[in-house]
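User: I'm writing a tutorial on reading structure tokens. Could you give me a worked example: one chain, its sequence, then its tokens, then a sentence or two explaining what the tokens reveal?
Assistant: Sure. Here is the example chain.
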Amino acid sequence: MSRLLRRQALSIFRAALAAADPVGAVVRYLKKRDFSRFRHIYVVGTGKAGASMALAVERVLGRRITAGLVNVKYGNTAKLRHIELNPCGHPVPDRHGVDGAGRIAAIASRAEADDLVLCLISGGGSALLPLPAAPVTLEEKQATTQLLLACGANIHEFNAVRKHLSRIKGGQLARLAAPATVEALLLSDVVGDDLDVIGSGPTAPDSSTFAGVLAILDKFALRPRVPASVRERLEQGARGELPETPKPGDAVFRGVRNVLVGNSRLALDAAARKARSLGFHTLVLSSEIQGETREIARMHAAIVRELVASSQPVKPPACIITGGETTVTLRGDGLGGRNQEFVLAAVPDIAGLRRVVVFSAGTDGSDGPTDAAGAIADGDTLERNPEALGYLDRNDSYHYFQSLNDLVITGPTNTNVMDVRILLVGSGK
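And here are its predicted structure tokens:
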């Protein structure tokens, strides 16, 4: 039974990936638009789906593109003729990202009133678009990123900090492009689809402030730990000595249009349709799950046990699907990501259940600093490797599942709409 359930979980996940493919969404949007009034069309962008989105733009606009550059994660590629892809570091920004961000800023600054700047933004775009604001250096921004990754800050908190250490995020790309027309096409990887959070909102009004960012650092006791230049810049800004990021109502947004072309809900709905076609009674519980990964995992495991015990909230054969993005507070020095840790944390709680599967994977194909998208487990997993809690204490989910050949490895998917978690309970005893 578990072998079949495992294959079905992978099939349901593949359906989610197909629905999250941005090429079709971008092509459909662009074909509705009239670009004849623009003298030049510049294409810029950032994110894990950047290669797919750029490919879609070339299919529609082709030779109309004057110049284009998109920062993408290493390994995310496509064959393009008019738009250059610039591979760079994620989740920790690197020098290639800085160089590309500088060139993107220069392209946007070239645009004039009768030009269009088409901006492609997707998940991962914030780390892939590093342009540190003085006096912060790349190395100091890298150190700050590592601290935020380790403390369990959520994406809203993370990106608020990034925006106030940048010359291009938080609406500042729109400022550079003014008075040109700006159309930003966004593939959301954030809970709530907040335009100012996706990729740190380079073309969206920013509601966060320097003072709010300092409060985030204080929440995680990071103010004394971040590099001195970071602390000094944020404190200067909070005192009103530095200009804020552009806010709602700012004149720089008069010619800006931000369009959401894809999000987690589309992927989850497609996963649900596939699950139903396989015969499962299916419930999409939520597309907005957030919180500490281990706690969320135990909650999902409790749902599995309830399904087995009482056939609630749906009757087996059952499929429960959730989306969103959890956070991991690092306590050990192991290797893994939030999806692998989610499944590992659920393993002890589903042990001995003979007709269940727990699956979690990132739609971008990359879970943390690993080559895996996620992992899969069933009621026999703990028996196959009883050391689950030890691996969990070390945040070493990757090596736990590697030992069982239970990593989910897809390679780069060229999309990113957060994570997909699938709970399957088969029929019978």
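What the tokens reveal: The mean pLDDT is 96. DSSP finds 15 helices and twelve strands in the chain.
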